[in-house]
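Please decode residue identities from the backbone states below.
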């Protein structure tokens, strides 16, 4: 493959510049096809007729369908009450309304785009109605007519003229009937019925040789045919047939894949206009044709394949058949009113192209930059090189190496060639100076994408991949334009002083004027977020190229928007169906577009150069009215109206809007706002959904206005608006009678509340008295408690006093004895040493355990809350305590006996029980001499009694009485009671115990401690 390309390039190198084929003057059409898959209710179309509002009406075998350019709204037995058949047939050429008859004779009329079922009769054109019982004539539907040729053999065929006159054709005779009577007759030998038609109320006949005959009453006239039909080779061969749209009053001639509209003119002329070509109407089974002359659009209805729409394209694409790559970027003017690309391919105005010598080989320029200086030389880039080319694009005249990769090349009006690139700084070459050496300008710009000299001298606008800069010449001082720091600049257009238009790759279009940057609004589809170029025509319109199509906008509209004088800007969109090979135009080059001296424009695209004459481009404005097709509330569809009443508490309300427009639907923008009467809030306009429905839900009662609007064209406040007023009914609680009832109920409620309040206050007073009484009782109880506490404190103080006296007796006496024994007093010598030791040990022993008991007592005194209880092994505890007293009991020859059975347990606080048991044993050992101390237990129910008995001298009766009376306040015992018994009395409540004393059987004392029993 590479070898073939190389050989091809070599041949081109030795060949002279070769022109292409002759200019392409052909007319091209864009085709849209609608079937039942696109919303058409049925694919059999019986006719096409427009109404005065711009809608098209299509009778089908499944209803009468209204078409607005994108949406089919069908009328059939589903939504027309009383209609029994949806199979539509003929369409009447009515003067006042569109009238359609179905297969059983029912008639539908269309007035003001509203359909009405009027029954089986309609004034006017009565003769046009076909009656199976009437064999006198057959009214044709137009051409083609499946039954016309058949009935022509057996009865007259009727061709309508007016509501009361018509032509009756039978064999070779044509009769003119006026109000049922024959005015005149015309005899036409060898008459072919299918070539006879009525146009502008005149009768014409198309001969097989292509000549047309017309009649003024019964006088024949030769009609001169003019226009496009004469140049059709098929017409010269007499290959033609008629298509006659009776309802639309249009007649067409179809030749070999081409269709022409016939238009009667003055002075016996018939003009023909081609409306479609390269379309096989036979293969598509076309039975109905309608031509929209204003917009050069033809509608073709098929009996089996739906609807075809042919629209004439307005743009021309220039391509080279020999070019393998048709992706174009930079362009410049060339001799002969032609345009040349950076790769050396030139196109003339007639469409011819030439491959110039530098279009191949090593000297081919890169396609992204091309500038022409005042001497006619071209400057472009090739990597790091600035390349100059001769005016005839035959040789390289200069080549300059730069230190960076070149981004763009621009020829200024003063003769400078400016170069920007990847790294900071600009280079320029003054081509008008003899010393045209390359100069460097230290401007703080880098990664340059576009350069444009302003209208003010000494200013250079430089676009980069990261913003826009203003460079002051010749100092190189650079100003950053705030707001475009992250914008990738695609082009700069400076038409006037202090007016700079900027296009970006990612932020849309901006205007910088009077040191103020304004972002222009985007189109509805946001295609203009990436805009490559702005080109202004001589009529004051901007042409903007994008990746998704071409836009046209009025410059003054954009200025007014920037100044706050205009709210919306209308952008007219041109898509691929207008003649482009692709919607993706190219940018990232300089220049980004080319304008001829006569105003024609050439735009680079991804597939060819798109060229056109701006003044010849027709724009189909969306200037028709807005209509409401249907309304629906709570899923119940109703007929459309300008006023609608909704029940209170409705769930949803929907309405469908439409407006006839057969151009590109991207030029049609609907917005709506909801206003409530009396509201003073700012209007909020929301876009209507793509399905053109507006949905509301749960509105409060009141009167509302749904305002639907669209932009109809260029200029300020160019709106078409439709207002639908709706009323949400009042709820029952908002009605007058309910408010009066509510007021009466409120008054009664106030009275009732007042009485309840008075009763409540009375009850509160009673409760207050009761509370005072209760508080008094509580205070009395508190006083009693305080008195009781005071009494307890008094008793406790008395107890502490006796405890202090006992402590003094139990500690001070042994200490005094120890001091005397251990003193050097001569009387102490009389004591034996053994006795001294025994007495000393016993005294110290008693003081030790006395202090220990006091410590335990103090702990229990300061402890708060309940004492923890546990299961205590009583035999083991008694044994442990007896071991403590063992030394003392042995010295006094006292026998300690533990008769507690093994396994005996009690539930108590172990610490407190230990202290009590210790003191009981201590007391028994202290008052016993040469005897025994015995511990036994007695079980009775859930109680266990511990008996500590001794054989001592016995306990004074006063102490016994004190111990046996728990309610005793402790004032009745003497000093001899001892601290141990006092501690026991203090600790007994804590372990829920009870202590009693009684004399022994022979002598001594028995102390009994009663506790709770615990058995495993």
């Amino acid at each position: 493959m590479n070898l073939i390309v190389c050989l091809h390039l070599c041949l081109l190198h030795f060949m002279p510049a070769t022109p292409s084929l002759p200019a392409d003057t052909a007319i091209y059409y864009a085709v849209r096809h609608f079937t039942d898959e696109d919303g058409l209710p049925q694919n059999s179309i019986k006719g096409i007729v427009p109404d005065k509002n711009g809608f098209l009406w299509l009778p089908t075998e499944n209803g009468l369908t209204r078409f607005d350019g994108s949406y089919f709204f069908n009328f059939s037995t589903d939504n027309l009450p009383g209609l029994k058949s949806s199979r539509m047939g003929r369409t009447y050429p009515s003067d006042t309304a569109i009238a359609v008859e179905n297969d059983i004779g029912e008639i539908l009329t269309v007035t003001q785009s509203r359909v009405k079922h009027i029954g089986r009769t309609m004034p006017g054109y009565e003769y046009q109605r076909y009656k199976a019982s009437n064999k006198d004539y057959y009214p044709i539907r137009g051409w083609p007519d499946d039954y016309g040729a058949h009935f022509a053999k057996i009865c007259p065929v009727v061709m309508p003229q007016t509501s009361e006159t018509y032509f009756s054709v039978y064999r070779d005779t044509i009769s003119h009937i006026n109000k049922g009577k024959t005015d005149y007759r015309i005899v036409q030998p060898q008459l072919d019925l299918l070539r006879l038609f009525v146009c502008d109320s005149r009768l014409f006949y198309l001969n097989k040789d292509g000549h047309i005959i017309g009649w003024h009453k019964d006088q024949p006239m030769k009609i001169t045919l003019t226009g496009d039909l004469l140049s059709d080779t098929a017409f010269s061969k007499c290959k033609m047939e008629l298509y006659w749209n009776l309802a639309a009053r249009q007649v067409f001639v179809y030749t070999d894949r081409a269709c022409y509209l016939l238009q009667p003119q003055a002075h016996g002329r018939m003009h023909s206009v081609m409306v479609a070509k390269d379309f096989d109407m036979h293969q598509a089974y076309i039975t109905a044709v309608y031509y929209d002359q204003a917009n050069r659009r033809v509608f073709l209805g098929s009996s089996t394949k739906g609807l075809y729409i042919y629209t004439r394209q307005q743009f021309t694409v220039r391509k080279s058949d020999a070019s393998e790559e048709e992706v174009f970027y930079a362009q410049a003017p060339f001799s002969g009113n032609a345009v040349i690309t950076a790769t050396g391919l030139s196109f003339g105005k007639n469409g011819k192209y030439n491959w110039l010598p530098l279009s191949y080989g090593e000297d081919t320029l890169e396609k992204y930059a091309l500038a022409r200086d005042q001497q006619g030389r071209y400057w472009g880039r090739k990597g790091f090189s600035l390349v100059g080319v001769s005016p005839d694009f035959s040789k390289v005249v200069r080549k300059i190496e730069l230190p960076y990769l070149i981004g763009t090349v621009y020829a200024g009006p003063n003769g400078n060639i400016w170069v920007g690139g990847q790294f900071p700084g600009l280079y320029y070459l003054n081509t008008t100076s003899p010393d045209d050496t390359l100069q460097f300008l230290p401007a703080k710009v880098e990664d340059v994408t576009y350069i444009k000299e302003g209208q003010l001298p000494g200013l250079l606008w430089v676009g980069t991949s990261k913003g826009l800069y203003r460079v002051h010449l010749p100092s190189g001082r650079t100003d950053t334009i705030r707001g475009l720091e992250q914008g990738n600049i695609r082009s700069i257009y400076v038409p006037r002083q202090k007016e700079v238009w900027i296009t970006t790759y990612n932020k849309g279009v901006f205007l910088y004027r009077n040191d103020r940057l304004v972002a222009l609004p985007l189109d509805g589809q946001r295609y203009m977020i990436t805009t490559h170029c702005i080109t202004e025509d001589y009529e004051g319109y901007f042409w903007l190229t994008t990746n998704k199509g071409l836009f046209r906008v009025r410059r003054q509209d954009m200025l007014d928007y920037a100044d706050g004088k205009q709210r919306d800007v209308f952008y007219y969109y041109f898509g691929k169906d207008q003649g482009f090979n692709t919607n993706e135009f190219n940018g990232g080059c300089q220049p980004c577009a080319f304008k001829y001296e006569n105003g024609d424009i050439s735009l680079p695209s991804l597939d060819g150069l798109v060229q056109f004459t701006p003044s010849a481009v027709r724009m189909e404005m969306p200037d028709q009215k807005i209509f409401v097709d249907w309304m629906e509330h709570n899923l119940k569809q109703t007929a459309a109206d300008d006023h609608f009443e909704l029940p209170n508490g409705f769930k949803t309300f929907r309405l469908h809007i439409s407006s006839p427009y057969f151009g590109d639907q991207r030029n049609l923008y609907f917005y709506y706002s909801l206003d409530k009467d009396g509201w003073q809030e700012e209007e909020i306009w929301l876009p209507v959904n793509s399905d053109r429905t507006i949905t509301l839900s749960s509105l409060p009662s009141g009167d509302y206005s749904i305002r639907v609007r669209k932009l109809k064209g260029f200029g300020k406040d160019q709106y078409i608006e439709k207002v639908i007023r709706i009323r949400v009914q009042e709820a029952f609680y908002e009605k007058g009678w309910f408010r009066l009832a509510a007021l009466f109920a409120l008054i009664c409620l106030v009275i009732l509340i007042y009485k309840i309040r008075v009763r409540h206050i009375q009850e509160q007073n009673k409760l207050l008295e009761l509370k005072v009484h209760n508080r008094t009782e509580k205070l009395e109880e508190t006083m009693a408690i305080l008195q009781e506490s005071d009494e307890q404190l008094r008793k406790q103080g008395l107890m502490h006093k006796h405890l202090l006296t006992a402590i003094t007796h139990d500690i001070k006496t042994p200490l005094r004895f120890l001091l005397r024994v251990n003193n050097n007093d001569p009387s102490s010598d009389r004591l034996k040493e053994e006795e001294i030791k025994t007495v000393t040990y016993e005294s110290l022993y008693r003081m030790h355990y006395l202090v220990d008991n006091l410590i335990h007592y103090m702990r229990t005194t300061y402890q708060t809350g309940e004492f923890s209880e546990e299961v205590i092994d009583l035999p083991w505890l008694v044994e442990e305590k007896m071991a403590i007293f063992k030394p003392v009991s042995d010295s006094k020859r006292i026998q300690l006996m533990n008769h507690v059975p093994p396994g005996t347990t009690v539930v108590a606080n172990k610490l407190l029980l230990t202290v009590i048991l210790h003191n009981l044993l201590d007391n028994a050992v202290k008052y016993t001499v040469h005897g025994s101390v015995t511990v036994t237990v007695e079980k009775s129910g859930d109680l266990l009694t511990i008996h500590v008995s001794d054989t001592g001298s016995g306990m004074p009766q006063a102490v016994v009485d004190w111990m046996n009376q728990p309610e005793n306040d402790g004032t009745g015992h003497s000093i001899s009671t001892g601290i141990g018994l006092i501690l026991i009395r203090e600790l007994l409540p804590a372990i829920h115990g009870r202590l009693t004393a009684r004399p022994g059987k022979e002598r001594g004392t028995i102390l009994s401690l009663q506790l709770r029993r615990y058995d495993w």
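Observation: The CA atoms of residues 511 and 559 lie 8 Å apart.
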